[in-house]
Amino acid sequence: MNVDFTEEQRLVQLTIRGLMKRHLPISLVRELQQPHTSGHAEGLWDQLAADGWLGLAIPEEYGGSGATFVDLGILYEESGRALVPTTLYSTTHAALLFTALGTEAQRRDYLRRIAAGEAISTVAYAEPGVIHNSACFATRATRIGDRWVLSGQKAFVLNAHLADPLLVVACTETDGRDGLTVFLIPRAAPGVTIQPHSTSAGDRQSVVRFDGVHVGAEAVLGGEAAVGRAKAAITLATRQATALQCAEMTGGMQQILEMTLQYVSERDQFGRPIGSFQAVHHHAANMATAVDGARLIAYYSLWLLANGAPAEAETAMAKAWASDAYISVSLMAHQLWGGMGYALESDLYLWSNRAKATELSFGTRDHHLQNLARLVLDTAS
Amino acid sequence: MDFRLTKLQLGWQEEVRAFLRNECSPELKAELRQTGYNEVGPLLAAFHKKMRAKNWFGINWPKEYGGLEKNVIEQYIFLEEFRGAGIPVSMVGATIIGPTIIRVGTDENKRMWLGPITSGEAEWCLGYSEPDAGTDLASLSTRAELVGDQWVINGVKTWISEAHNATHMWTAVRTDPAAAKHKGISVIAVPMNAPGVTTRPIWTWGDRRVNEVLLEDVYVPRNFLIGEVNKGWNYITGALDFERMLMGNISDMRQLFDDLVQLCNRMLLDGEVLAKRPAVRMKIAELAMELEVARLFGWRAASLLDAGQVLSAEASMMKVYVTELRAKVSDWGTQVLDLYGQLNTDDPMAPLFGELTFRCRYTPFLRFGGGTNEVQRDIIAQRGLGLPRPKERRE
Fold this sequence. Notes:
The complex is a heterodimer. Chain A is of the alpha+beta class. Helices cover about 50% and strands about 15% of the residues of chain A. By secondary structure, chain B is an alpha+beta fold. Chain B has helices at about 5-25, 25-35, 40-55, 70-85, 90-105, 105-120, 230-240, 240-250, 250-265, 280-305, 315-335, 355-360, 365-370, 375-385; strands spanning about 125, 145, 150-160, 170-175, 185-190, 195-205, 210-220, 270, 270-275. The radius of gyration of chain B is 22 Å and the shape is globular.
């Protein structure tokens, strides 16, 4: 039992933190929120690829380093601190789905490109009017000879404007299967239209329309055997991505906490630092407890996943906790910083915006608590 | 990072579990409920005797003093299992006094006191708080003066748990009134049957008996002083590790929560099983999450101690979080049970033996006992997070 990082993991943490400091100044984070930019930090991306971080969780035979989910969690935590653009997260999510479902040839091709920093990708799951329940999906793929025709709309697709391929979850004929199939869709395929959302955090999400998009059999992730059988793999990859996002959120709230500690230690009122007031002490202690709890449950769930456990309940706990913690830590920071933190020039809002975006993505607190209730109550005999 | 127990630790866990399966009978649990954890009944005494036969009153003691020399993780495993089984594990002598004597006691201290702790001859209570020295313990004013070969002790101790069951009180006294307040304190063993010792019950909201102990010209032999004179503050604060682990462990509440979950699946109210109520489901899920985080806080503390680190902010964080969660589990648990949530242990219709109801009244004391949660939050902010201390202090 060692709940702390190993020496090696600490080294990974410090190395990534240093890299972020050098290649992702906060001015760049701010700039990439502007609508005229791509929202993607190319210099950082190349560096992450060159140093092998993009291949962290990709098996060695596909050009990665085959590290564990705990190591990947460290990358996410540090990315959350530094507010790394979301292309890292959407691409990793796609890589997890490639790993869970792809054929040998698909993994060799795409995972190698992702590890090398040559591909940005994303998973298109939600639809207008459908966030979680795939039984309500309207996006369908129909087989015509040995080809497929895809029609429908996906919404909230992260980085669709850069992703190639898009991994699109569609309904196919069931004949006794779960009816979900994942298609690799080139962004430039005829019939694909991308309409950007306008989001609170200024991250890049889009509605993607598929109007009779034709693809060949090789576009089915996992090949013929996976047609109509993708549900388990999608669920697994999504759970993994959810647990990882909890680590990202932990990093974000840790950063808010540290900036706040510094602020209240330097800001004087009534002739003393406001951080010397007990009321402020107590708020800070509560913030730190929320952050430490988030870190413990996030890494516990990642550690379970790394060891092949389903971690269904633990991931639900991690996300429910992190959703609440990130928001409440950011709101308390705003309270403690006063007007200073409300002004855009403080940059505090950048983390607060990410808190809201991550609170809502991969299931809200209530969504996960409902799942947890099912796991706790309905399996108790 | 590795949340696994070693094979050896798993073996130890199984040994403790097997013992509890065999020895923690429904009759013993009934006796504990009936005494309200206030008295040592015959079944609990017999249970303690069996523990003694296994040397379980010296789990973390070195072998040369008759201990098992278990490490922190193993102690924590023991604590988890005992708490989970609903057996009280305050065991002040075994967990606080014995280890402190081993660490700082004189040879004579060791000869006199260690044997009686393991044999059960000596039962201890902690004599720290006073009417004017609670959270600010260093202000204590109970006075001990050396007269010839005897200490003469005068003062009042209050909120003393187990004083009515104890044979001795581990008493914090002022031996040098001229020194700075932390530097004039010593620890002396006071036999509860010494002339001048009067124990009076204080009954609390949580049905728990604590005591006021009056010390009036109590004469105690000189060699009943523990360790060196005027070093008592270090002895008292240095023994906090296990106490913090005790306060931070919540496996009894988790067990109670698991029982509540089972109950929700069979108890009908207004024609519907409780587990189907959406509001109940959300409460159960939230508590499940928070209890899991509490468990992780506990393992983090044990694992840091095991790695040789000193706990400060982490222990305080765990103390605050866990004691407040205890109150929440009790409160929400009784809400889930609706009107049944008010039934006491002795009511035949009380669900879960009225345990949740009892704990609604019992758990609030943990929020201020063992260092109030306000002070704990200050410790987190100052020692853990490095925030500035309040400048002005009125002496």
